[in-house]
Each structure stands twice: as structure tokens, then as C-alpha cells.
Amino acid sequence: MSADPVATVAGAPVAVAEVDAREARLRGGPGAAALPAGGTSEGRQLRRWLTQLIVTERVVAAEAAARRLTERDAPTEAELLPDVTARLEIGSVAAAVLADARARALYADVTATVVVGADDVADYHVRNPLRFAAQRPGPHGWRAPSVTAPPLDEVRSAVAEHLRGAARRRAFRAWLDERRAALVRLAPGYEHPGDPRQPDNTHRH
Questions:
Q1: CB 89: neighbour CB atoms within 10 A?
Q2: CA–CA dist 168, 159 (Å, integer)
Q3: What is the pLDDT of residues 170-205, one digit of tens each?
């Protein structure tokens, strides 16, 4: 096994053994049957993803420590990532990192100044008039979608919260991309899974 690091974060090496250990835990866990076989193109992509997770965890931990953030400062995971769409918006690595309370505290700190304008709220409601409409009673005790758009004043806070949540996710992802670009260096064979220059990237146009 090579002694060369798979990456460095602010000059500190990430050993191959750390990726090996993460992969071993996954392959020993309940979802092991769904994982790609080792040594295959998909298996190498899994190791690249694990490398991204490890370096991102290090970036986040260092930044949280520098800002003196603790778990007490953290919102819940459900507050930041309320549904599948939110997880897709922020990306799988960032979503995985936000399972840690210190990462959520950092998210809250980084995105604290994100605001959504009144015009944005009004425009969204015009484009999606039924998005936050209350359901109406249907037959047999079921609830049915509303066919009448509520006035903006009734749903303004819900729309604003929805838009601010999405804006905060975009802001955190952009911040995280910038910090990784500044601090992380990846070794050949451990490039980002989506890097078109690496041979196992199957996304083609």
C-alpha cells in the first residue's frame, strides 16, 4: 500500500489508511450490499467520494474551531435539510458533513447574514400561487390540494422561510467550495468524483 497521502488539507496529509478505514466501515455496515465492488470504476468513485468527505470534514472542523463554535450553537439537521430536495441542493458531501453538530453551527454562522428580499418573496408567490396553500377537506376524510391561491400576506412568512433556506444552502455550498479550493490538494487517483479529467467519471455530454 502506498504511503503517499490521498490529499492534503492546509498542508496536513490525509493517509490512504483513513480512506481504507472509512470504506471498511461502510462495507461492514447495513448498506453494504448496495455498495459497488472494490476495484471497479464505481468502487474507485466511492473512494473518491469518501476522500471528499474526509477533507471536507477537516476543513469544517478547522473553521469551526477558528470561529470558536460549539455544538451548543448548532441548529438541528432537520432545520437545515428538511427534505430530499434540500439535500440535493447542497450536495451529498455537504449533506453528510452536516450530520455533525459543529458543522451545523458553522453553517449557521456562515449563512447568518443571508436575506431574501420582499420582491423575491412576492415574485415567487406569483409564480407558485398554490405552493403554500392549505389543503382542503376531501372525500372519505382525505385532504385535497387547494384550488384557490391564498393572498400573499397569509403565506409571506412561509415563502420567505422557504426561499431563505434555499439561499442559505447555496451560500454555504459556495463558501465550502471556496474553502476547499484554497486548502485542499488531491492526489492523482483521488480527484473529485465529478472531475471530467479522471477516467472513472462517467458523466458525458
A1: 16
A2: 14
A3: 999 999 999 999 999 999 989 888 888 888 876 544
Please give the Cα distance from 30 to 53 (Å, whole number). Answer: 20
Question: What's the CA gap between 143 and 146, in Å, rounded?
Answer: 9
| CA distances in angstroms from 146 to 60, 67, 125, 130, listed in the order given | 43, 46, 15, 7
Is the distance from CB of 98 to CB of 52 less than 8 angstroms? no
Element (H, E) at 49: helix 41-66
Annotate 136-179 with DSSP letters as a single string: EE-GGG-EE--SSPPPHHHHHHHHHHHHHHHHHHHHHHHHHHHH
- Tell me the pTM: 0.86
User: What 3-state DSSP class applies to 185?
Assistant: strand
